[in-house]
Design goal:
By secondary structure, this protein is an alpha/beta fold. The chain has ten helices and eight strands. α1 packs across α2, α1 packs antiparallel against α8 and α4 crosses α7.
């Protein structure tokens, strides 16, 4: 089912703040030994890190590469993902058929990038097994949902017990459409009008490969975070999330705070529904 969204939010300071907020919506999964949080890199990893930390769950990345239709790369004719999974979009291929050799060429190119990212992110750590597990797929937001849709279909091929889609913010129609393929969809809040994911973050600067690698290493290489109590997952986590987010942000920036860093001060825009600012729209 799709959980009812809470619309009192007007945005997030940064992805770590968004992850802490999302973790509160996922508190029912806290302390279970069959939960794996799969973050979609790169932007989904800081969000997923906070979720896994709050739930006492394992964290891993799930790298998805869309297979763009030649001449129209924005249109996905399929996708490949971690674990050797390939999903083809039969509807697109029926409308715009391509030869097997063309499909194979596109797949090889994307496979090289997928393997590069996995080497960079995992640093030799093995893939977390998903068979029989409750998999929570996390990203920093949902616009069209094409990447998340490919991720759900790819994860299904690895035989999990359940697939949950979880994002802090998303377009209402996209969140609803994912119900058809996921066991549960949790969108933290669904603003109207939506426009773009980055508009709902004060700091939406690009997550780097190095930040992804550091967060995964800090998460313990696929071992669970310490299991929290119910109070920690639901309310106690709220008290320390700003301090924790700032500590990680400073560490990732080499210990040098940015002047007037809105991620440290929190959102400062008017609470009128859309915290649009120059910093919020960077990276769109």
């Amino acid at each position: 089912m799709t959980r009812p969204e809470r619309q009192q939010r007007t945005g997030f300071a940064n992805r770590l703040d968004a992850g802490a907020f999302l973790a509160e919506r996922l508190a029912g999964f806290a302390g279970r030994d069959d939960v794996v949080v799969l973050a979609l890199p790169r932007g989904g990893v800081p969000v997923g890190y906070e979720v896994a930390r709050a739930l006492g769950a394992r964290l891993d990345v799930f790298v998805v590469r869309k297979l763009g239709l030649p001449g129209h790369p924005e249109l996905a004719m399929g996708a490949i993902a971690s674990g050797g999974v390939q999903v083809l979009n039969e509807e697109v291929l029926a409308f715009s058929p391509v030869s097997r050799s063309v499909l194979d060429a596109v797949t090889r190119a994307e496979q090289q990038e997928l393997e590069r990212r996995e080497r960079e992110y995992r640093d030799g750590r093995p893939v977390v097994p998903l068979e029989g597990q409750v998999v929570i797929l996390v990203d920093d937001g949902l616009a069209t949902g094409s990447t998340m849709r490919a991720a759900v279909q790819a994860v299904r091929g690895l035989r999990p017990a359940r697939v949950v889609v979880a994002v802090p913010v998303g377009a209402s129609q996209t969140c609803q459409s994912l119900r058809a393929i996921a066991d549960d969809v949790i969108c933290g809040f669904t603003p109207e009008p939506f426009r773009a994911v980055g508009l709902w973050y004060a700091d939406f600067s690009q997550t780097t490969d190095e930040e992804v690698r550091q967060l995964l290493a800090r998460a313990g290489g696929g071992t669970p975070f310490p299991a929290p109590g119910a109070h920690d997952a639901r309310r106690g986590h709220r008290r320390d999330r700003a301090r924790h987010a700032n500590a990680i942000a400073l560490e990732n920036r080499g210990g040098l705070p940015r002047k007037n860093d809105r991620a440290r001060r929190g959102l400062t825009g008017k609470r009128s529904g859309s915290p649009v600012s120059e910093s919020a729209t960077r990276g769109l």
